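Input (structure):
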């Protein structure tokens, strides 16, 4: 059986990735395509434990290099136990963040060496890249306002960052999209949800003719 397609969603905090990812799965369901919805860091029980380590604001310092290694450790677990098996059985995988997030957050946001990130990416998933990435782009203050209006509980290590950090992350994402326009589709996420979903459906529709794979029986 041919493998399913690998779709990723990216963007700054509060861009609407989780909301849109659920919508993408519903859209695929209407096309009779089986989809697996997942997220990073995390996605499996073990990778979610790594997520907890990397997000929680604990006593010990976590350097940008350590943060990068933990993102790839979680990713390696996720790929082996969930992403690759799902793609191989013909499901489409819809993943809320993947390696572009490491490029944007650790590379753009924290200044980690881009060549080193690419070398880790090559080792962890050299043969597998997303087929299509939806970059939900919006001005940082709108994203932060949306995220904070919804926030409940403790603020994590990223949510505690200042606006200037997210400005660097956003700029890094837009630069990635400029370099890879065939794969990374910039969606105007500042618009109302319905308009965002229309843009997303237009991109997904252009992935057609939808391959004769991963269809529900
Ligand atoms: N991270 C990293 O540094 N390196 C990596 O390699 C990876 C991740 C993989 C956790 O990610 C952190 O990990 C993340 C980057 C880092 N930290 N940050 N920032 P996460 O994806 O789990 O957390 P998040 O980015 O903070 O997600 P989020 O805040 O949940 O945002 P979202 O998923 O993009 O948004 P949402 O929950 O779908 O929507 C937010 C609210 O806005 C909600 O009330 C919606 O109803 C509302 N919304 C959504 N769309 C709209 C529109 N169009 N209009 C109005 N309101 C809307």
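Output (sequence):
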């Amino acid at each position: 059986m041919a493998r399913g397609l690998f779709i990723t969603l990216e963007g700054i905090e509060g861009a609407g990735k989780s909301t849109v990812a659920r919508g993408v799965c519903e859209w695929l369901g209407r096309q009779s395509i089986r989809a697996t919805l997942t997220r990073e860091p995390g996605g499996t029980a073990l990778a979610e434990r790594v997520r907890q380590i990397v997000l929680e604001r604990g006593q010990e310092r976590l350097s940008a290099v350590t943060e990068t290694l933990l993102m790839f450790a979680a990713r390696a677990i996720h790929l082996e136990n969930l992403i690759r098996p799902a793609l191989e059985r013909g499901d489409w995988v819809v993943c809320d963040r993947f390696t572009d997030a490491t490029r944007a957050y650790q590379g753009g946001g924290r200044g980690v060496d881009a060549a080193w990130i690419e070398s880790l990416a090559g080792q962890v998933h050299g043969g597998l890249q997303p087929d299509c990435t939806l970059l939900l782009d919006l001005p940082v203050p709108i994203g932060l306002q949306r995220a904070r209006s919804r926030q409940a509980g403790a603020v994590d290590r990223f949510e505690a960052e200042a606006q200037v950090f997210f400005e660097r992350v956003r700029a890094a994402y837009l630069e990635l999209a400029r370099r890879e326009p065939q794969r990374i589709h910039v969606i105007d996420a500042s618009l109302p949800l319905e308009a965002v979903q229309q843009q997303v459906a237009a991109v997904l529709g252009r992935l057609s003719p939808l391959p004769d794979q991963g269809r529900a029986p």
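Notes: Residues 213-217 have pLDDT under 50 and may be disordered. Residues 11, 13-19, 40-41, 71, 96-97, 101-102, 105-106, 146-147, 150, 158, 189, 192-193, 196 surround Z5A (CB under 6 Å).
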